From TrEMBL:
Taxonomic lineage of the native organism: Bacteria, Bacillati, Actinomycetota, Actinomycetes, Streptosporangiales
Record bears the keyword Magnesium: no
Name of this chain's protein: histidine kinase
Annotated region described as Disordered, given as residue ranges: 606-638
Record SUPFAM superfamilies: ATPase domain of HSP90 chaperone/DNA topoisomerase II/histidine kinase (SSF55874)
A Pfam family: HATPase_c
Keywords: Kinase, Membrane, Phosphoprotein, Transferase, Transmembrane, Transmembrane helix
EC numbers on record: 2.7.13.3
Species this protein is from: Nonomuraea roseoviolacea subsp. carminata
Listed Gene3D superfamilies: Histidine kinase-like ATPase, C-terminal domain (3.30.565.10)
InterPro entries registered for this protein in UniProt: HATPase_C_sf, HATPase_dom, His_kinase_dom, Nitrate/nitrite_sensing, TCS_sensor_his_kinase
Ranges of biased composition (kind: Basic and acidic residues): 615-630
Enzyme class: transferase
Transmembrane regions: 12-34
Reactions this protein catalyses: ATP + protein L-histidine = ADP + protein N-phospho-L-histidine
Length: 638
C-alpha cells in the first residue's frame, strides 16, 4: 500500500500540474518574444561589426583589383605607386574587418563559418600580389582571384542579412543583390580597362548580362523609399552612356572614357548602397522596440493570468480542503465520540439524544456525503438502541427464569432437608445427600443467569466468613468435588457482602479445572496472604492452554466484554469476569508446573480481615462450615 497523504496535499498536487504548465508556457512565450527582440536589436550590431567593415573592405579590394589590372596592362611607375598605396588601404581595411568581426563572428554557426571563409580567401591576397609583382600572373587569373575574395564577402552579407522580420529581410536581401550588381560593374571596369582579349570579352559579356538582369530584378522588389535612388541612377544619362560603351566593348571596341564613366557611376551606386543599408539598419531598431513592447505586454498579461489562476486555484483548493477536513472531523467525532457515548449511555440505561450531523458545504458531493454520514449515525444509534433493548429483554428473561428456578430450588432444598431428618436408612440418606448437592449446583447455575443479566444474586452473609470455609463452600458446588483438594490456609476472613459472589467465582474456576483435566488427577486449591490482599490458586493437571488463547482469556478476565448470546460455550468465563469486576477482584490464568493451568484469584485487602483473637461459634446455617487445619477431599455443602 502506498504512503497515505492528506487530501490537501493531493488537491495541491492536482492543481500543481496545470499551474506548472502555465508557468512554463509563460516562460517560453516570454523567452521567445524577448529573443526575437534581441535578435532585431542585434541586426544593427552586426551591421556595425560585420557588414559595414565588409563593404569597406570590398570597396578597397575592388580598387586594388582595378589597379592590379591596369598595372598588368601598362607597367609604369605611376601605376605601381597607385597599386602600392591601394594595397596599404586594403590591408588597413582588412585589419579593421578582422578586429570588428571578432566581436560578432560567434553570433551563430553560419556567421562564424562565413567569417572563417572570408579570412581564408583574404589569405590568397599575398600569393597573388607576389605573382603580380613578379610579372608571372595573367590578367584574367588575377581578376578571378580577386573575384573569389569579394564573393566570400558577399556570402557573409547574405548570412548576416537574415532576420526574423520578413519585410526587413526581403529588402535587405534585395539591397545585397544591388550591391552585388555594383560588384559586377567593378569587374567590368577591371576587364575593360584597356584592349581586351577574346576570353576577356566572353567573361565581360557574361558579367554584363548578369548585372543587367540582377539590377532589373532587384529594382522591381525594392520598396519606394529605396528604389527611387536606384531608378534615378539607372535613368541618368551617364548610365545610358555606360550601356553604350558596354555594347561597344562586347563588339570588340575600346571606348574612350570608360574608366572615368564607370568610376563615377561606381561611386554613385556605392553611396546609394550604403544609404539603403543604413536605412534598413535603422528600420530594425523600431521593430525591435515594438517586439519588445509586445513581449512585455504579453509576458505581463500571461503573468497576471498565471497569478490569478494560482490564486483562484489555491482558493478553491483551500475551500474544498476545509470542507473535506470538516467532513473528516465530523465523521471522526461520530465514530470516536458520539457512537461510543451512545453505547455507554445505553449500557447504563440512560436516555439517548443524538444531534444531527451538520456539515456546511457549497459542494454538492460533500453535502451528500455529510447527509449520508448523518443517516449512518442515526441508523447506528437506532441499531444500538435496538441492541440495548434486546439485551435488556434477554436480561429480563434471564432474571425471571433464574428467580423462578431459585424459588423452586429453595423449596426443593427445604423438602430435602426435611427428608434427610426423617430418613433412617443409610442408602436413602446417601441418595438424599446427592440430590442436595445437585440442587446446590442448580442453584449456582441459576445465579449465573442472574449475574449475566446484570442483577445481583440474593444470597449473602451478614458477618465475615473464614476464607477456608468460603473455598470449601465453593468446592461443594462442583459436581466432581471429590477430586478437589483444599490445602490449609491462614485464618483470614472475607467480608459478608462479598462471600456469595466469591463462592460462585471460585466454584466456576474449580469446575473448569475438573472439566478440562483428566478424571484421575486432583485439583488443588491453595490460599495465602499477599501484599495487596489474599491470593487463592486453583491448579489443575490437564493439557494446558495455548499462549495466544490464554492471553485472550486473561484480557477478557481483566476487562469483561458484553455478553454474547452466540458465545454460550464460555458462560463461566463471563460470570467470573462479571463477578471479579464487581468487587475489583483480579483473576489471572497462567501455566502450571504440571502442564495444566493455574487460576490466581487476588482478593483486595479491603474485603479481607484478620482472624479474631478468640474462636467464634460454628457458622450458622446460611454460612459455610468452618474447617479444621488439615487437608480434605470431601467438602459438604452449606
Amino acid at each position: 500500500m502506498g504512503r497515505s497523504r492528506t487530501i490537501r496535499v493531493k488537491i495541491i498536487g492536482l492543481l500543481l500540474i496545470p499551474l506548472a504548465s502555465m508557468v512554463v508556457l509563460w516562460g517560453v512565450i516570454t523567452a521567445v518574444t524577448a529573443t526575437e527582440s534581441l535578435e532585431l536589436r542585434q541586426y544593427k550590431t552586426l551591421w556595425t561589426n560585420l557588414r559595414l567593415p565588409a563593404y569597406q573592405l570590398t570597396t578597397e579590394l575592388q580598387r586594388e583589383r582595378l589597379a592590379s589590372a591596369r598595372l598588368l596592362r601598362v607597367k609604369s611607375n605611376t601605376n605601381e605607386s597607385e597599386l602600392v598605396a591601394q594595397r596599404a588601404r586594403t590591408d588597413a581595411a582588412r585589419e579593421r574587418f578582422k578586429q570588428l568581426s571578432a566581436a560578432s563572428m560567434h553570433t551563430s554557426e553560419q556567421i562564424h563559418a562565413q567569417v572563417d571563409a572570408v579570412l581564408a580567401q583574404l589569405g590568397r591576397l599575398e600569393p597573388i600580389r607576389g605573382e603580380i609583382d613578379a610579372g608571372l600572373a595573367a590578367r584574367l587569373h588575377v581578376i578571378e582571384t580577386y573575384n573569389g575574395v569579394t564573393d566570400s564577402l558577399f556570402g557573409l552579407h547574405r548570412n548576416v542579412a537574415f532576420i526574423d522580420d520578413i519585410p526587413i529581410y526581403e529588402q535587405s536581401r534585395v539591397v545585397v543583390d544591388v550591391s552585388y550588381a555594383r560588384e559586377l560593374l567593378t569587374r567590368e571596369q577591371a576587364l575593360a580597362a584597356g584592349p581586351t582579349t577574346a576570353a576577356e570579352r566572353r567573361l565581360f559579356t557574361q558579367i554584363v548580362g548578369n548585372r543587367r538582369f540582377l539590377l532589373d530584378q532587384a529594382l522591381g522588389e525594392l520598396d519606394p523609399g529605396l528604389r527611387d535612388t536606384q531608378v534615378s541612377l539607372i535613368t541618368s544619362p551617364a548610365y545610358q552612356r555606360m550601356r553604350i560603351m558596354e555594347d561597344q566593348i562586347i563588339a570588340g571596341g575600346t571606348p574612350a572614357g570608360w574608366l572615368s564613366a564607370t568610376e563615377t557611376l561606381n561611386k554613385s551606386f556605392l553611396d546609394a548602397q550604403l544609404q539603403a543599408s543604413s536605412l534598413l539598419s535603422g528600420r530594425a531598431e523600431p521593430v525591435a522596440d515594438a517586439v519588445l513592447r509586445r513581449a512585455f505586454l504579453l509576458a505581463g498579461t500571461c503573468f497576471v493570468l498565471v497569478i490569478v489562476s494560482i490564486g483562484f486555484s489555491l482558493r478553491m483548493g483551500n475551500r474544498l480542503s476545509r470542507e473535506l477536513a470538516a467532513l473528516r472531523l465530523a465523521a471522526l467525532e461520530v465514530s470516536r465520540e458520539r457512537l461510543p457515548q451512545v453505547v455507554e449511555k445505553l449500557r447504563r440505561g440512560e436516555k439517548v439524544e443524538v444531534p444531527e450531523l451538520s456539515v456546511t458545504s457549497t459542494t454538492t458531493e460533500i453535502g451528500d456525503v455529510g447527509e449520508a454520514f448523518s443517516t449512518v449515525q442515526q441508523t447506528a444509534v437506532e441499531a444500538a438502541v435496538g441492541q440495548a433493548q434486546l439485551r435488556d429483554g434477554v436480561g429480563h428473561v434471564f432474571r425471571n427464569l433464574a428467580r423462578r428456578s431459585q424459588t423452586l430450588l429453595h423449596r426443593q432444598r427445604i423438602q430435602l432437608e426435611d427428608m434427610q431428618h426423617r430418613a433412617t436408612e443409610p442408602e436413602a440418606l446417601d441418595d438424599l445427600f446427592r440430590l442436595d448437592h445437585l440442587t446446590t449446583r442448580m442453584r449456582r447455575h441459576a445465579e449465573g443467569l442472574i449475574i449475566l443479566s446484570g442483577a445481583t444474586p440474593g444470597r449473602g452473609w451478614s458477618k465475615p466468613v473464614p476464607l477456608l470455609d468460603v473455598v470449601r463452600g465453593a468446592a461443594a458446588e462442583v459436581e466432581d468435588y471429590q477430586r478437589v483438594i483444599v490445602e490449609p490456609m491462614p485464618g483470614q476472613r472475607l467480608a459478608g457482602p462479598v462471600v456469595g459472589d466469591v463462592i460462585h467465582l471460585i466454584a466456576e474456576l474449580i469446575e473448569n479445572a475438573t472439566v478440562y483435566s483428566p478424571p484421575h488427577t486432583p485439583v488443588q486449591v491453595r490460599g495465602e496472604v499477599a501484599a495487596r490482599g489474599f491470593a487463592l490458586e486453583v491448579e489443575d493437571r490437564g493439557l494446558g492452554i495455548a499462549p495466544e488463547v490464554m492471553a485472550e482469556l486473561n484480557a477478557r478476565l481483566a476487562s469483561p466484554p458484553e455478553f454474547d448470546l452466540a458465545d454460550s460455550d464460555q458462560l463461566g468465563l463471563f460470570v467470573v469476569s462479571r463477578l471479579a469486576a464487581r468487587h475489583d477482584i483480579r483473576v489471572t490464568l497462567r501455566g502450571s508446573p504440571y502442564g495444566g493451568t493455574t487460576a490466581i484469584v487476588l482478593i483486595p485487602a479491603e474485603h479481607v480481615s484478620d482472624p479474631p483473637a478468640e474462636p467464634e461459634e460454628r457458622a450458622t446455617d446460611k454460612e459455610p462450615a468452618k474447617e479444621g487445619a488439615r487437608t480434605i477431599r470431601v467438602v459438604q455443602g452449606e
